[in-house]
Amino acid sequence: MATLSANATQTAYVMNDPGSGTTWAAVRAAATGTGSSDSLNDNYPQNMNYGGGNFDLARCFFAFDTSSLGASAIISAATFTFVSNGAGSDSDATSYVLMPSTQGSPISTSDFGAVTFTNCGTLALADRVNGSNVITLNAAGIANINKTGTTKFALSFLLDQANTSPTGYNFADIRSSTVPVLEITYTLPSPVYRVRPDVSIGVGITV
User: Fold this and answer.
1) Which tops the pLDDT comparison, 103 or 206?
2) Cα 51 to Cα 184: distance, rounded to the nearest angstrom
3) HEC per residue, 120-144
4) Mean pLDDT for the chain?
5) pLDDT at residue 205, rounded to an integer
6) How far apart are CA 134 and CA 93, in angstroms?
7) How confident is the model at residue 196, as a pLDDT?
8) Burial class of residue 168 (count of CB atoms within 10 Å of its CB; 0-12, 13-18, 19+)
9) Please, which pLDDT band fits residue 33 given cuts at 50, 70 and 90?
10) Which of 149, 155, 141 lies closest to 183, judged by CA?
11) How distant, in Å, are the alpha carbons of 55, 60, 76, 145 from that of 111?
């Protein structure tokens, strides 16, 4: 059993806040956002309903170098650890959710839609603490780990993943000098030795 602890090599953020006169479905499904940043200090997932058809959706994007695992690695468990300094929700009982992503680097507003809406692991917002928080990856999350390259995840809320319109505000401050960590527990297959059936090796035996 071995463990790989991979620090995030990308900590980015894309938001879509088109203003009033739109719908949650349109904001969520947009391919392009209205702002982006590659700074960890701007990482701030949020699902907002300001009323009057004014929605704001922000997703965080992360990348990890997991190429040292190797193609033959057998992953048994993985966790995503991030630091949070605050959060809030006025009406929605929701959760953080990790989703597969395909964003570029550097990030751009065109990466807003670079997500697959698959639940890779959750943490209830009510269970969030100031400090380190851990999301345990489920089977889909483990399957998203690239054993020979770069692993990418987006962090948002279940409202986003499940396409459920927020009724108020939901945000999570994960701005920190500590980058998120993807910790992977894995094993490597045992080597297979083959012996030629026509060869015998032993004491006093000449081969």
Assistant:
1) 103
2) 42
3) CCEEEHHHCCCEEEEEECCHHHHHC
4) 90
5) 47
6) 18
7) 65
8) middle
9) very high
10) 141
11) 18, 10, 30, 20
Tokens of 108: 């751009």
Question: How far, CA to CA in Å, does 49 sit from each of 19, 56, 171?
Answer: 11, 7, 11
Euclidean distance between CA atoms 98 and 12, whole angstroms = 14
Rounded to whole angstroms, how far apart are CA atoms 158 and 141?
15
Whether residue 182 contacts residue 6, with contact meaning beta carbons closer than 8 Å, is answered with yes
| Long-range CB contact pairs, 101-105, < 8 A, 24+ | 101/61, 101/152, 101/153, 101/154, 102/152, 103/10, 103/12, 103/14, 103/61, 103/63, 103/152, 103/154, 105/10, 105/12, 105/38, 105/63
Q: Which two tokens stand for residue 202?
A: 């032993």
Residue holding tokens 């080597």?
Answer: 191
Structure tokens at 133: 């928080």
CA atoms within 13 A on the CB side of 192: 2
> From the centroid of its chain, how far is CA 20?
30
Unique residue bearing structure tokens 């997500």: 115
Cα separation, 10 vs 112, whole angstroms: 15
Cα R_g (the chain), whole angstroms: 22
Which residues, in sequence order, are bridge partners of residue 63?
10, 152
Angle at 184 between CA 187 and CA 45, to 5 degrees: 160
The pair of structure tokens assigned to 140 is 């889909």
Q: For the chain, first and last CA: distance in Å?
A: 38
